[in-house]
Amino acid sequence: MLIEAAVLRAADAPYAIERVELADPGPGEIVVRIAGVGMCHTDLIGRVPGDLVAKPVILGHEGSGVVEAVGPGVAGVTAGDHVVMSFDSCGTCANCRDAVPGACPRMAALNMIAVPLDGRPRATDAEGNAVGNRWFGQSSFASHALGTVQNVVPVTKDVPIEKLGPLGCGVQTGAASVLISLGVKAGDDLAVFGAGAVGLAAVMAAKVAGATTIVAVDLNDARLDLARELGATHTINGADDDIAGQIRALSGGEGVQYSFDTTAVPSVVATAVASLRTTGVCGLVGVGSEEYRLDPNLLLMGRTVKGIIEGDAVPHTFIPKMIDLWRKGLFPFDRLIANYPLGEINRAEADAASGKVVKPVLIP
């Protein structure tokens, strides 16, 4: 079928809206007509110079929409279903069976390469050349995307489907990291470093969990104001002195039980660990390339640093949970969203990079 897609042809090139031929769904595959797709910081990996992500490619991995067709062997999803598209996983390895699909050994191959593993092109441009279309098992910066039974999550039809895409990755990562991976509960305290979509989702989830002290740290004062509106009890500008000391003071002098870093900035990660009490846990979800240097004495005293992928969530159960919380007015993730037509993807990217918006959602 002929679709419209935002194609990235070079790391430093603008997205170009092109007509692309998308293959019919094969075994286990599902065609989704995209109603909305979030733009996530992870999509910037496509802009890393070199061949980390082969070009040309269709990025986008927070799609939501309506199923148009299913391939052979698909069960539980039918044409007309409303769905959210999340990350892909094999579904059969030990980690998938243990309900941590984000730790699937095939995570990189299924999500980060954007090329079908069997080598058969599933999308071609006007000249008949292959275009990568398996970014996170979907490549949803397009009017239509191919997903699988593993990463397409049916949802109820009584919620606005165009808003739900960010639940598939960024919002899920922040909320599930707090509620599942860290296991924050009533009376706990948490410091969140970075008030982007992931960090603000963590703030909202901490409020849902009943955390007593929720500290948000960021350089953007407007985002700190929003963090307070969404549940933060305290905010700190990241340019302040002795942030760890301030957080320890806010938590009775001992430090917080949990800290959560979304920035991957080494100095910020070190501060997040230094903000913990002696039994505290620091969760890391930021994607970076620099080494972290931590005071070994902090870890020797019992603190833990934990890498987290997709919040340790199972999308098929956690995405409906977030929708239910939103329906009850407890998880207003839609306050993070700013809509853009798909054709204005370059403006959306610039606005996200400048901090003007938290979560752009592209509407094909």
UniProtKB/TrEMBL annotation:
Q: Which cofactor does it need?
A: Zn(2+)
Q: Could you tell me which residue ranges the Enoyl reductase (ER) domain spans?
A: 10-362
Cellular component, GO, one term? cytosol
Under InterPro entries, the record lists: ADH-like_C, ADH-like_N, ADH_Zn_CS, ER, GroES-like_sf, NAD(P)-bd_dom_sf
UniProt-listed GO biological process terms: formaldehyde catabolic process
| The entry's keywords | Metal-binding, NAD, Oxidoreductase, Zinc
User: SMART domains this protein is in?
Assistant: PKS_ER
GO MF term set:
S-(hydroxymethyl)glutathione dehydrogenase [NAD(P)+] activity; zinc ion binding
| Top-rank taxon | Bacteria
- Which is an annotated Pfam family here? ADH_zinc_N
The entry's family comment says: Belongs to the zinc-containing alcohol dehydrogenase family.
Q: What is this protein called?
A: Alcohol dehydrogenase zinc-binding domain protein
User: From which organism does this entry originate?
Assistant: Actinomadura verrucosospora
